[in-house]
Specification:
The structure is a single chain. It is built from ten helices and ten strands. It has about 260 residues and is an alpha/beta fold. It has a single domain, classed as Aldolase class I (TIM Barrel, Alpha-Beta Barrel). The strands form two sheets. It has an eight-stranded parallel β-barrel with strand order 1-2-3-4-5-7-9-10, surrounded by nine helices. The two termini are about 15 Å apart. The mean pLDDT is about 90.
C-alpha cells in the first residue's frame, strides 16, 4: 500500500483525491516536523474533515515517531497507525521501548510499526550501507516486539538518491525468509517501477514516499510563479495537482501485481 506524507490542506487533498480516483486505500502520513509545523490537533481535525468526503479508506499514520510521549499522544488521540523509530538506539533498548508502545497501540486498536536497521540519506547524515538490517536482529526484534509492520533498511534512503544507492534485494529476501513478516520500505522516492515491484514481490506491504512529493509540490509552485499567477489559491491548486499526478502514478504501480506493468 502506498504511504504518502502531508503537511497542510493542499498536500492532504492531493493524497485523498488521488486515492479516490484510483479507488485504492492509502496511508496519509505526518512526521514530527509536520506536527510541529501544523499542530497535532489541527492535523487530526483536518484529516477527519477531509476523510468525510473520501470514498476509500485513508489511514492517518505517524511517520518516524522518535518522541515516545508524542507516539503515545497520537495513539490516544485517534491515529489509525503509528511508527516508533528507535533504530538509532541499541537493539535491546529499541526492543524494550517498542514492545511497550506496541502493547499500548494494540490496546487502543492502533496499528504499530517499528524499525530495525537505519534508513540512511543526506537528511539523516547516515550512510545507507553502514546500517542495513541484519536478518538475525530482525528476527530477534520481531519475535520479542511483535509489531504489525517492520521497517527495514536495505539501501533505501531519505531525501534524493544517487546512482550508486541501489536496493539490496538479496538482503530483503533473506530478511523475509527469516521472519516472514509484513515489511515496510521508507525513503523510496524516485525509484524505478520495477524496483517497487520486486520489493512488493518479496514481502513489502507499505512503501513510503515523501521527497518526490515535495519536489512535485515545489515544481507546481514554480510553474505557477513563472506564469505570473498571483492568487495564492491558484498557486496552491497547481502545486497540489502536480503532487497528485505523482501520487496517482505511484498508486498505479503499487497496485499492479505483475513485474512488467
Amino acid at each position: 500500500m502506498g504511504a504518502f506524507n502531508f503537511y497542510n490542506l493542499e498536500s492532504l487533498k492531493s493524497i485523498t483525491k488521488s486515492a479516490d480516483i484510483k479507488e485504492k486505500p492509502v496511508f496519509a502520513m505526518v512526521s514530527e516536523k509536520a506536527i510541529e509545523y501544523a499542530g497535532l490537533e489541527e492535523i487530526i481535525e483536518l484529516t477527519k474533515a477531509v476523510k468525510l468526503k473520501t470514498k476509500v479508506d485513508i489511514y492517518l499514520h505517524l511517520d518516524h515517531g522518535k518522541d515516545i510521549e508524542l507516539v503515545k499522544r497520537c495513539i490516544k488521540m485517534g491515529f489509525d497507525s503509528v511508527m516508533f523509530d528507535g533504530s538509532a538506539l541499541p537493539i535491546d533498548q529499541n526492543i524494550i521501548i517498542s514492545k511497550d508502545l506496541c502493547r499500548i497501540a494494540h490496546r487502543n486498536g492502533v496499528v504499530f510499526e517499528a524499525e530495525i536497521g537505519r534508513v540512511g540519506g543526506k537528511e539523516d547524515k547516515v550512510s545507507s550501507a553502514i546500517f542495513k538490517t541484519d536478518p538475525r536482529d530482525a528476527q530477534k526484534f520481531f519475535e520479542e516486539v511483535k509489531p504489525d509492520m517492520l521497517a527495514v533498511a536495505i539501501g533505501n534512503v531519505h531525501g534524493p538518491i544517487t546512482a550508486n544507492e541501489e536496493l539490496d534485494f538479496t538482503l530483503l529476501a533473506k530478511i523475509q525468509d527469516t521472519i516472514k513478516a509484513p515489511l515496510v520500505l521508507h525513503g523510496c522516492s524516485n525509484r524505478l517501477p520495477r524496483e517497487y515491484k520486486v520489493a512488493i514481490s518479496q514481502g513489502i506491504v507499505k512503501i513510503n514516499i515523501d521527497t518526490e512529493l515535495r519536489q512535485a509540490f515545489v515544481r507546481g509552485v514554480s510553474t505557477a510563479i513563472k506564469k505570473k499567477i498571483s492568487d495564492p489559491r491558484e498557486i496552491l491548486t497547481i502545486a497540489s495537482d502536480e503532487m497528485s499526478e505523482d501520487i496517482k502514478e505511484k498508486i498505479e504501480i503499487f497496485s499492479c501485481e505483475k513485474l512488467n506493468c
